[in-house]
Amino acid sequence: xxxxxxxxxxxxxxxxxxxxxxxxxxxxxxxxxxxxxxxxxxxxxxxxxxxxxxxxxxxxxxxxxxxxxxxxxxxxxxxxxxxxxxxxxxxxxxxxxxxxxxxxxxxxxxxxxxxxxxxxxxxxxxxxxxxxxxxxxxxxxxxxxxxxxxxxxxxxxxxxxxxxxxxxxxxxxxxxxxxxxxxxxxxxxxxxxxxxxxxxxxxxxxxxxxxxxxxxxxxxxxxxxxxxxxxxxxxxxxxxxxxxxxxxxxxxxxxxxxxxxxxxxxxxxxxxxxxxxxxxxxxxxxxxxxxxxxxxxxxxxxxxxxxxxxxxxxxxxxxxxxxxxxxxxxxxxxxxxxxxxxxxxxxxxxxxxxxxxxxxxxxxxxxxxxxxxxxxxxxxxxxxxxxxxxxxxxxxxxxxxxxxxxxxxxxxxxxxxxxxxxxxxxxxxxxxxxxxxxxxxxxxxxxxxxxxxxxxxxxxxxxxxxxxx
Length: 469
Ligand SMILES: [Zn+2]
Ligand SMILES: [Zn+2]
What we know:
The chain has helices spanning 79-88, 106-117, 136-147, 167-180, 191-203, 210-214, 218-235, 247-258, 269-273, 276-280, 303-313, 352-361, 367-381, and strands at residues 2-6, 9-11, 16-18, 20-24, 27-32, 46-49, 54-57, 59-64, 69-70, 73-74, 91-100, 124-131, 152-156, 183-187, 239-241, 263-267, 316-319, 399-403, 408-409, 429-430, 433-439, 442-446, 449-450. The longest helix is centred in the middle third of the chain and has 18 residues, at 218-235. It is of the alpha/beta class. A hairpin with a 2-residue loop joins strand 22 and strand 23. The strands form 5 sheets. It has an 8-stranded parallel beta sheet with strand order 8-11-12-13-14-15-16-17. Bound molecules: zinc ion (2 copies). One zinc ion is lined by residues 63, 65, 322, 324.
């Protein structure tokens, strides 16, 4: 089966220009100048007309949590529903997290996550490993996982008693990563300080969702980010700080990068657009829709604009979703009367490409930077580049035809295929549209809608990060 995508503008992380793309089976066979004499007329089994449209690498979402257990419930998207929603939105690879909590064995958990995902995904998937219990067994498993294609390890400075690692444990895990070439990902919030602030707020009767934000102030994020940077420096390990929302934390990341350290920042659409005041502070219990950690920050303090700036400067390396959806009914509502019991997470896996394209339409980032932070650099960061993240001969044919003159209305009953009973983006209007999506050469979404199949998605064995100095 061959597919010719013709007439479009191919956009990469470094430039854009008119080119046709020939797909043969699961991979890209050629990228060539339309009408170029060297090729003559090219025929294919299927021709996709991309005139007036962008042809970009499929999105790589480096941070998702499908069916993740959390506080007695689990994230409401399964690997099946979540990857289908991703496909709708132009994302063709996710990197999800295997969870090892305290008392669990890493390798048992890896087997469990493979079981959950295998045969269920619409698009390709890979895994990071959460190490919630750093001990001799877990450190040994980190070495073993590198060979199994799981080359990044998330640690927590938050959630005491569940996932939190002590500074000594963090240092040990970083030393292990420094030895085996793995990448340490950090949830950087000072969990012990946050627990005190939460307790004090509840005692004052501050129980509404808004207080989720005020009890995780920027100081707790900046302090933890700084500590992680120093420990990584001590261990000689690279550090990738996940879901950064405070501008002060990014200041520290930028300083470390300027000093030549292998430190990277990730942010998510919710931190670029949404806020403490407007969203977490919505009337009644509505704010629960936007309870996630790190929390949404105050617009009055200018975090959102600063985050866009750091995307432009490169100090925000990637934009992922931290997709971790929960329904309002029977899930978020566990926290009525106590914000600390609201499951943490927002679902956005379907909308990341559109939401960041809106940044292009608004003049905040360039077209190329959009492709860079959403597709190419996540692939490089997590050791998949060449196979993923690029439109080039030999790469997997993960391709999106994006219409800059199209329009997308986000909301339940409109474009909403995530398994959630609300949208965190209800009413958002986007100046662009995902027209066609190919996953390894198969059209999984076109103008008729989703036409992919469950189980098409395969596990991607990742190499070491290709984005380290
Ligand atoms: Zn986290
Ligand atoms: Zn997460």
